[in-house]
Amino acid sequence: MTSVARSGRRRAESRPPMRSHRIRGFRGAGSPVVSKGDAGRTIPIARPVIGQEEIDAVREVLTSGMLASGRYVKQFEREFAQYCGTNHAVAMNSGTAALFSTLYALGIAQGDEVIVPDFTFVATASSVRMAGATPVFADIDEKSYNIQPEAVLEQITPRTKAVIGVHLYGQPFDVGALSEICDDHGLALIEDCAQAHGARYEGRMAGSFGTAGCFSFYPTKNMTTSEGGMVTTDDTRLATQLRKIIDHGQGIKYRHDLIGFNFRMTNIEAAIGSVQLGKLDAMNERRRKNAVCLLQHLPAAGIVPPYCAPQSHHVYHQFVIRLDEGNGIGREACMHALGERGIQTAIHYPLPLHRQPVFAHAANGARFPVSDACARSVLSLPVHPSVSGQDCRYICARLGEVV
Ligand SMILES: Cc1ncc(COP(=O)(O)O)c(C=O)c1O
Question: Given this model, what pLDDT does residue 268 score?
């Protein structure tokens, strides 16, 4: 591991009217059919909150003629670092670029192993392969669906260089236990914060605990820049290295110190990001209110509601229930029935990583019973800021009829 890897490790908005529309490209397996429900409209599983402020910000950049990375990116980086409480934030063009660039900057490469949860979006592990290293899977906790610290301990070998913890669905993983394990074994802790903008663990921001925090601003996330990503860190050398990696390996113009990429964020994306960051707390509060409403009205039998740990400030990127297995009508039929009633649902995720065709060989015969059970039974319900209290009650009532 490089010295960069070792050093620096420490520690209302008004709601738009709901309109019937189709969601393009949301992540997760979605409802097979979504019709207009009793209320004459559909409740989508995700919807970015875009107002006049974002449109004005984009117009301003377009009018300025400075479309590529520039002062709007610098401003967004400053604001994001301040929001997360870190010394640096480096903007880039996706969450995947954020994860990969961090691994590359830390010198993680062929022959190295990185432990990741078995139950997450594929980019958590594919970024490890992109860096040339091997992702090693760890099972998850049955209640929080986050990586299990004991399972991480079992997977550590002399080749392990880092652990990527994912704050899945908007709830921080067990940062205390993971930090201790990484400290004891000299490993970098990378936080995958793609689903956890504004989430807190014991009052402190996601993205401020590990060697680095990696965010995504894909349109379904708690805040968006259209496409985009960010790395937060307190490590000045890591931040400097990241800036080179995302810009063709150059620190000084046309002097290339390493093989780099074009992972830069544009001014257009950053201008959207600054506006969205200003709305983030209000949007997250709306999600949290919806989660409370859904929890109050969920059917009493046939499902497991989401669990929120006492030390977590959960920002409900997804509101995920588990359907009792072998009971009721089955998940596919349930999704179909809800879809016919105008409620779009999704599965995050239908396959654990060790069962993904691209990673099947990497599982090495290991078993991941919790991850397997979750993949068979999880179901995401709409919880985003454009869902109203009335929608929440409607969703729960229809779910009660179906399960
Ligand atoms: C947990 C997790 N990690 C990484 C990513 C990758 O982010 P992006 O789509 O911006 O590359 C995502 C996005 O869906 C994600 O959910």
Answer: 98
- Rounded Cα distance between 275 and 75, Å, is 11
Domain extent at residue 92: 51-138+145-274
330-366: per-residue pLDDT in tens? 999 999 999 999 999 999 999 999 999 999 887 778 8
Query: Is ligand 1 within 6 A of the CB of residue 101?
Result: no
CATH number (domain holding residue 337): 3.90.1150.10
CA distance 403 to 101: 44
Which atom of ligand 1 lies closest to the CA of 94? 10
Question: Which structure tokens are listed for 395?
Answer: 């969703």
> Looking at the whole model, is its pTM more than 0.85?
yes
Ligand 1 centre from 355 Cα, in Å? Answer: 19
Question: What's the pLDDT tens digit per position in 237-255?
Answer: 999 999 999 999 999 999 9
Q: How is the beta sheet containing 212-216 ordered, strand by strand?
A: 88-92, 229-233, 212-216, 188-192, 160-166, 113-117, 134-138
From residue 84, give the alpha-carbon distance in Å to each of 214, 232, 284, 319, 333.
12, 8, 15, 23, 41
User: Do 40 and 55 fall within a single domain?
Assistant: no
Instruction: Examine the domain organization and report whether 180 and 233 are in the same domain.
Output: yes
